Amino acid sequence: MERNLYLIMNKPVGYVCSAVSDSHKTVYELLTPELQELVSGAKRGRRLHTIGRLDCDTSGLLLLTNDGDFSHKVSASTKINGLSLAKTYRAVLAFPVSDDDKKAYSAAVKKSILLPPEKKFGEQLAEPAEIKWIMSSADTVCEITVHEGKFHEVRRIFKALGNEVVELERISIGSLRLPEDLPSGSYREMTEEEIMTLYSF
Predict the structure, then answer these.
(1) Could you give the residue numbers annotated as active site?
(2) How far apart are CA 131 and CA 118, in angstroms?
(3) In principle, which of 52, 134, 159, 195 could form an S-S bond with 141, CB 3.0–4.6 Å?
(4) Is the pTM of this model over 0.90?
(5) Residues of the chain by 3-state class (helix, strand, coil), percent to 5
(6) What's the confidence (pLDDT) of residue 1?
(7) In the beta sheet, which residues pair with residue 87?
(8) Helix or strand run (H / E) with residue 192
């Protein structure tokens, strides 16, 4: 019987989470040939896959598994026991934000902010989010925590606020944080503690 695999990756910019792409590299190209074989060669239901996706221009914490129950647990869009699994991103903005605007941004995202349309998605209401401002001489860096996974949600939130995201990195899923010692483009197997952190949610 194949063992369950749980991988944690620091996804670099420029890679997509699709198994096949004509225009970009895929995150599966970062894996060993043996692991790549599990992406398409394993039987249905046991294939190695990403849990959710990060777009091409977003880096950071990405999980891969061949355990369907674990995948559903982490990526389920419906709320579990009245809660949802928070995801936190580090965002670098195009325009500096004044102290007054920081307060306004934080207050706005605590409500159901209206996301502007993008591609095939029209206007959508976002669930309340939280912004934590990071000390920066340019006042352009913050951490934002969201509780759902709407298309380009973080980028659209800041667009609605009149700003623009120029760099975006996912740094945590629930209480699981991106390991500081995991270089961009690298991955490793998750520890039992890391796995249980998400299973116990």
Answers:
(1) 55
(2) 22
(3) 134
(4) yes
(5) 25, 30, 45
(6) 53
(7) 146, 173
(8) helix 192-199
